[in-house]
Amino acid sequence: MQDTMDRLFETVTARIVAAAEELTELDSAIGDGDHGSNMKRGMEAVAADRAKLAALAPGEALKTAGMTLVMKVGGASGPLYGTLFMTLGKELGAAPDRAGVARAFAAAIDAVKARGKSETGQKTMLDVLVPVSAALSSGASLAEIREIASKSAAATVPMLAIRGRASFLGERSIGHMDPGARSSVIMIEAVLDVLETKA
Amino acid sequence: MQDTMDRLFETVTARIVAAAEELTELDSAIGDGDHGSNMKRGMEAVAADRAKLAALAPGEALKTAGMTLVMKVGGASGPLYGTLFMTLGKELGAAPDRAGVARAFAAAIDAVKARGKSETGQKTMLDVLVPVSAALSSGASLAEIREIASKSAAATVPMLAIRGRASFLGERSIGHMDPGARSSVIMIEAVLDVLETKA
Amino acid sequence: MKKLINAVDTVLSESLAGFVRAHADIVTLGDEGKFVRRRFPVRGKVALISGGGSGHEPLHAGFVGHGMLDAACPGQVFTSPTPDQMLAAAETVDGGAGVLYIVKNYEGDVMNFEMAAEMASGPVARILTDDDVAVESSTWSTGRRGVAGTMVVEKIVGAAAEAGYDLDACKALGDRVNQATRSMGVALTSCTVPAAGKPTFTLGENEMEMGVGIHGEPGRRRVPLTPAAEIAAEMIGAIVHDFGDFAGSDVLLLVNGFGGTPAMELYLMFDNAARMLDKHGLRVARSAVGNYVTSLDMAGCSLTVTKLDTETARLWDARVHTAALRWGM
Amino acid sequence: MKKLINAVDTVLSESLAGFVRAHADIVTLGDEGKFVRRRFPVRGKVALISGGGSGHEPLHAGFVGHGMLDAACPGQVFTSPTPDQMLAAAETVDGGAGVLYIVKNYEGDVMNFEMAAEMASGPVARILTDDDVAVESSTWSTGRRGVAGTMVVEKIVGAAAEAGYDLDACKALGDRVNQATRSMGVALTSCTVPAAGKPTFTLGENEMEMGVGIHGEPGRRRVPLTPAAEIAAEMIGAIVHDFGDFAGSDVLLLVNGFGGTPAMELYLMFDNAARMLDKHGLRVARSAVGNYVTSLDMAGCSLTVTKLDTETARLWDARVHTAALRWGM
Ligand SMILES: Nc1ncnc2c1ncn2[C@@H]1O[C@H](COP(=O)(O)OP(=O)(O)O)[C@@H](O)[C@H]1O
Ligand SMILES: Nc1ncnc2c1ncn2[C@@H]1O[C@H](COP(=O)(O)OP(=O)(O)O)[C@@H](O)[C@H]1O
Ligand SMILES: [Mg+2]
Ligand SMILES: [Mg+2]
Ligand SMILES: [Mg+2]
Ligand SMILES: [Mg+2]
Q1: Residue C190's domain is classified under what CATH number?
Q2: pLDDT value of residue D304
Q3: Could you tell me how far CA D203 lies from the centroid of its own chain?
Q4: Among A78, A87, C43, D45, which has the minimal tally of Cβ within 10 Å of its Cβ?
Q5: Which residues of A touch C196 (CB under 8 A)?
Q6: Which residues form the DhaK domain (chains C, D) (predicted)?
Q7: Ligand nearest to the CA of D215
Q8: What's the pLDDT at C329?
Q9: Between residues B184 and B166, which one has the greater pLDDT?
Q10: Domain match, C84 and C219 both
Q11: Do D147 and D206 belong to one domain?
Q12: Do A and C count as touching (3 or more CB pairs closer than 8 A)?
């Protein structure tokens, strides 16, 4: 399991780094053009600790990674992804089964909602995280989860932003994918890729 | 004669206004991009006084116009063209013949040299004014003077600037026509046009 | 992207190093560059801390010093600072009378501040600035953006803290000044975030972005460039309309350059804006013109109007000695 | 051309109107807008007047006030003022101890000043600034351009005049400071003169103009954009080389923005330039970073180094209260 965690951190980081420009591009359209560098800075800081993280229990590793995100990212995504990772780690327990993971993920998303004072339908990362969490809880397959994630991000395109910087744009936020929704998909796909090669 | 003076002011002003963009373009290449607006501002101020100037003797009118240039233009061209007009007016006398005009013009150019601490060959208006003055003194025809003026301006293109802003460019001043040489040609051609329609 | 930099990753640290070296008589850098603080801390007064994404210089570090901030936490370019920066600054400058954070209303800034506040030990209060009238606040529940008016809040509350106001009084005053302050911006060009490497948005040769934010966020609408008088009329009009009642008020007019606009144009805008306020029956009793809350290299400016009363006018006039703002000395 | 203006013809007058209104506590406008002068003239001291083409704001009007200039004559954009402006300013601010003009070395400025001096009644002296090392002076008999170092001369001589130095002493001091001052500039973009309507020159996406003047005049050469450290090395290298002997000197380092460069980059350049001076064994004893002698909206900056002695350092530190420069109060 520790080995899997390490591969997860490695893969998520690699994918985020590779997608940094795309994320910044999305954020330039309806935000302030820093989501890619924010996520890259955060995940690189997490990856820099990989040796240390590998020695920890999965829950502890996730909590540590979440704290690193909080301390290194800043902006909106720092506290939100940081909270997600920290809560996930806290709730995960020692040797979680799939139901345990699903419960921990749901709890982590509740923490994100509380931190962001936000809900689905507001054109944020929650529009990907919430349906993915629901699918996870309802026993969907990895392939189904993958499809739901990517469709959910696409579904943010026609949304009017109610939260985040894009909300300042009003009607003009319509027609663009939310950068945080996209970074969530990228991380989820990275996780699924690792789990599938393992499976 | 007073009627001619008025037509001279009118024509010179019109030509300078029409050429303002061209002069600014030349000044942008090797100077600071204001020769067109400088000359336009100055000649428009002169033209605004046309009624007053028409009531004056030619010499007085030129002196007044020169003073207007000094007070309205600024930059290098203001004191230089102002000095040219003022000295010309002072030296012209009541009813000058061609030789008198030639002498006055030569004196005016000496005053410009003194004001500018400059000589021919330094890529300035003097490279047009001096040969035109020489032609005038040697009895050249108006057509010959016209040709000398335009050729002299063209001859500033390969020159290395020693005076004026273009001198700061060193070698890079080579290959461009001097803006003051060009404005001199424009004014001289305007004068010749008026004199030829009169003749 | 054309910038005077060495590498995208070191822009912030090198710029901070230059800043604290150039103003070593006023400021010094905290551990790990987490914050900029007054060189000579003052005990017994409310500690005023602000912070936010970098790229708005002189905000906030340029306002650290006597009569204004005690510390400023610089985030990455356009990215709010992190809770550890805020905590480290608070620990260092807390003079025993509590800590007051001035936070611009962006979710990132608010959330990072909240995490810091949750981790803090002593009493902590917060002023949230949201002076930008460009976007209608009723519709979008994030509320309005905090922009150049933040500088006015920092100046006035800074003077109050220096004069011995306690934490509650400083906080109440700051909220009051924020509510008496309205801003609106216009961009003629985009800014370029170093890490992005290209302009955040693109405007046509004859377009302007009316109601732009200080991060190059789009504003009300993209329209053809109009004369300065019309721009001033629209911006002052929006501000005055938003105030509702206003006649006879004394106001502060701040013309704030976004970084790429020459002083000549800022003063011209001041002339046009002040004449608009005259027409609306507001008296321009105080003024400031310059680059205060910038957006990297963006060309354009914002107008800020603060209604003054006797107390806030006096505090605005009070002695201030920072890198970017100095008077009354 | 994208500018916050109403019409090309009224840029200067509207901008001046805004300037004197925003700083009405310090300055006032002379008849017909011919000059900007201190609101409260001082009798018995040498009157210091400067002037030059507009577009370099805050130079010169931003330096009118206590401890610096008595009046400034603004010409049209990039065009030296006319003799009548200089005469009108002199008549108004002459406090009975003579008039000293500070003139930047451009033929236009010099000739207009000379015509004014010929028409003047009282005693008139002149300091000619020519601090730009970009162009080799030996070859071109016009000599060197006066650029950002002019601000240093105006500050130090201004303090001397305020302290009661007589006309000869002010003039001698100014010449000495000018000789102890060297500058060099670099442009990343061109400026756009309002009346011209388009950029004076065009640089490729990766080019810079090394040694540019403050009117967008071409400099030493056009080269690919390099990191800030290399730019600072070349500019400081040229300045130090031109000084000849320098080791152990105390210097003032001025990083001057050209109008379109954000503070973040200017402070980064300060950091890089100061470290270069450290290497050359010069001690950065005083510093200034900001937009002081601009070139409209040009992006880029200049570095100025002035060798200080006890007297000039003291005069630099002396109280100054102008729109753009304030300290020691
Ligand atoms: N209140 C919120 N709740 C949930 N997600 C949010 C909220 N605010 C912002 N986000 C997410 O954060 C993303 C932006 O992150 P980032 O660009 O890194 O931060 P910032 O907006 O501070 O520059 C948005 O695309 C959105 O998905
Ligand atoms: N010392 C000088 N002697 C003669 N002509 C000069 C001298 N200096 C400049 N000029 C002329 O003036 C012209 C520039 O005029 P203008 O652009 O109006 O002034 P400025 O150079 O001050 O911007 C040059 O092209 C040149 O012909
Ligand atoms: Mg962002
Ligand atoms: Mg010129
Ligand atoms: Mg951000
Ligand atoms: Mg000029």
Answers
A1: 3.30.1180.20
A2: 98
A3: 25
A4: C43
A5: 24, 28, 33-34, 36-37
A6: 7-327
A7: 6
A8: 73
A9: B184
A10: no
A11: no
A12: yes
* Per-residue pLDDT at A199: 58
Which residue's entry shows tokens 């500690």?
A: C47
User: Residues in chain B whose beta carbon is closer than 8 A to a beta carbon of chain D?
Assistant: 24, 28, 30-34, 36-38, 41, 70-80, 115-116, 161-165, 167-170, 172
D114 lines ligand 2 (CB under 6 A): no
> Ramachandran region of residue C140, left (φ > 0), alpha (ψ -120 to 50) or beta?
beta
Which has more confidence, D274 or C196? D274
Same-domain pairing of D285 and D273: yes
**B160, B165, B186, best to mutate for ligand 2 pocket (most atoms within 8 Å of CB):** B165
> How confident is the model at residue D137, as a pLDDT?
57
pLDDT at D25 exceeding the cut of 80: yes
Residue C184: name the closest of C141, C226, C136 by CA: C136
D70 and D217 housed in the same domain: no
For residues D89 and D191, membership in a common domain is answered with no
**Distance from Cα D299 to the centre of ligand 5, integer Å:** 25
Contact D108 B76 (CB under 8 A): yes
Residue spans of chain A under pLDDT 50: none
**Considering C179, C201, C235, which residue would you say is the last residue of a domain?**
C179
The span from the CA of D226 to the CA of C231, in Å, is 38
User: What's the number of domains chain D is made of?
Assistant: 2
Say yes or no to pLDDT of D329 above 90.
no
pLDDT at C122 over 90: no
| Residue C298 pLDDT | 97
User: What's the pLDDT band for B33 if we cut at 50, 70, 90?
Assistant: confident
Under 8 Å between Cβ of C289 and C267: yes
Burial of D314 (0-12, 13-18, 19+ CB in 10 A): middle
* DSSP state at residue D30: P
Q: What is the pTM of this model?
A: 0.95
What integer is the mean pLDDT of C147-174? 98
A vs C: CB pairs below 8 A: 120
Q: Compute the average pLDDT of residues C254-264.
A: 97
The minimum CA-CA distance between C71 and chain D, rounded to whole Å, is 18
Range of the domain at D84: 8-179
Q: Are residues D27 and D156 in the same domain?
A: yes
The answer to whether B36 contacts D195, with C-beta atoms less than 8 Å apart, is yes
Question: What is the least distance, in Å, from the CA of C155 to any CA of chain A?
Answer: 25
- In angstroms, the CA B157 to CA D74 distance is 32
Residue-wise pLDDT for A99-120, tens only, equals: 999 999 999 999 999 999 999 9
Q: Is the pLDDT of residue C18 over 90?
A: yes
pLDDT-based confidence at B170, cuts 50/70/90?
confident
In this prediction, residue A84 carries a pLDDT of 98
Structure token digits, residue B12? 């010179």
- C158 & C55 share domain: yes
For residue C190, being part of any structural domain is answered with: yes
Query: What is the residue with the minimal CA distance to atom 18 of ligand 1?
Result: A35
User: Looking at residue D132, what DSSP letter applies?
Assistant: B
- Residue C2 in any domain: the answer is no
- Does D135 share its domain with D26? yes
pLDDT tier, D309 (very low <50, low <70, confident <90, very high otherwise): very high
- Domain for residue D326, yes or no? no
Domain of D57, CATH number, reads: 3.40.50.10440
Tell which of D129, D147, D179 closes a domain: D179
Residue C213, domain member (yes or no): yes
Q: Is A75 near ligand 1, meaning CB less than 6 Å away?
A: yes
Q: Which of A65, A100, A95, A101 is nearest to A83 (CA)?
A: A65
Give the pLDDT confidence of B105-120 residue by residue, as tens digits.
999 999 999 999 999 9
Contact D142 B164 (CB under 8 A): yes
- DSSP code string of C178-244: HHTEEEEEEESS--B-TTT-SBSS---TTEEEET--TTS---SEEEE---HHHHHHHHHHHHHHHH-
| C-beta atoms surrounding D25 within 10 Å | 12
